[in-house]
Amino acid sequence: MFAKLAKTIAIAAAIVATLGAAAPSAYAADGHHRHRGHGGHQAQGGHGHRPGWAPMRMGCAPFRAVEKARWSGMRHARLEHVSPRRVVVSGYRHHRGYDRMTFANRRGCPVVHY
């Protein structure tokens, strides 16, 4: 019984080793990545980094601040001012008239003043 178990484990290990060695080469052969000097990767198919392109925006996108103000109940929300620290959106609140919302110019646009 032990011999049969050892044989099954050996066959399973051989299959895993074969699949593990073949998977990276199949991925590379599919054209997803091309190796470029010193271990760096460069994406193919027009999806690479272009000059002047930032991979992740660190600040609050102005359109995102306007959307958040609208979701909070501000009508006719529009961008009023953008600085390195804050984004100000103005509009009208229900029964309160003209109002402004201030967002921090950080990722996620946290509300500073309502």
Provide an overview of this structure.
The chain is α+β, with helices and mostly antiparallel strands. The chain folds into 2 domains: 2-38; 62-113. The chain has 2 helices and 6 strands, in the order H-E-E-H-E-E-E-E. The protein has a 4-stranded antiparallel β-sheet, with helices on one face. Strands 1-2 form a two-stranded antiparallel ribbon. The radius of gyration is 27 Å and the shape is elongated. The protein starts with a helix and ends with a strand. The mean pLDDT is 76.
What are the main properties of this structure?
114 residues, alpha+beta, 2 domains, four-stranded antiparallel sheet, two-stranded antiparallel ribbon, 2 helices
Assembly state of the chains shown: single chain
Strands, total number: 6
Cα distance, first to last residue? 73 Å
- Helix-residue proportion: 25-40%
**Any idea how many domains?**
2
Note the main sheet: 4 strands, antiparallel
**Rough shape?**
elongated
Radius of gyration: 27 Å
Structural class: alpha+beta
Biggest β-sheet: strands ordered side by side in the sheet = 3-4-5-6
Written as H for each helix and E for each strand, in order along the chain, the element string is HEEHEEEE
List the uncertain runs. Answer: none
Helix segment count?
Answer: 2
* Average predicted local confidence, pLDDT: 76
What portion of residues belong to β-strands?
A: 25-35%
SSE layout and pairing:
Layout lengths: L1 H28 L3 E4 L3 E4 L18 H10 L3 E8 L3 E8 L3 E8 L6 E3 L1
Keywords: Signal
Protein name: Antifreeze protein
What would a concise description of this structure say?
This protein has helices at 2-29, 62-71; strands at 33-36, 40-43, 75-82, 86-93, 97-104, 111-113. The protein is α+β, with helices and mostly antiparallel strands and 114 residues long. It folds into 2 domains: 2-38; 62-113.
